[in-house]
Design goal:
Layout lengths: L6 H13 L1 E17 L5 E17 L27 H12 L1
Length: 99
Amino acid sequence: METGESLDEAVRREILEETGLRVKPVEMFGVFERVIKDAQGRTEYHYLLFDYVCKVTGGKLQAADDVARVEWVRRARLGDYQLTEGTREVIERAYSSAS
């Protein structure tokens, strides 16, 4: 987030910067914490992740900024990708809650 930026604004900006898509945040789906430890077991990184369900309102899907590749993936193909620990579970919960 940028100083003075709301969560809603940050979601819109980050998604546009990283995927080329304009979105409207629909709902905050969850807040998740990730603690990454170094080889000695000391905390190296501590992240708070705010996951949103969003509606695409415009733009063109393209890798931009700090993203190497983007693509739309069907739910059945999620297992074909190496995802960060916990990511698949969050995606599955989002699908289940939308049903």
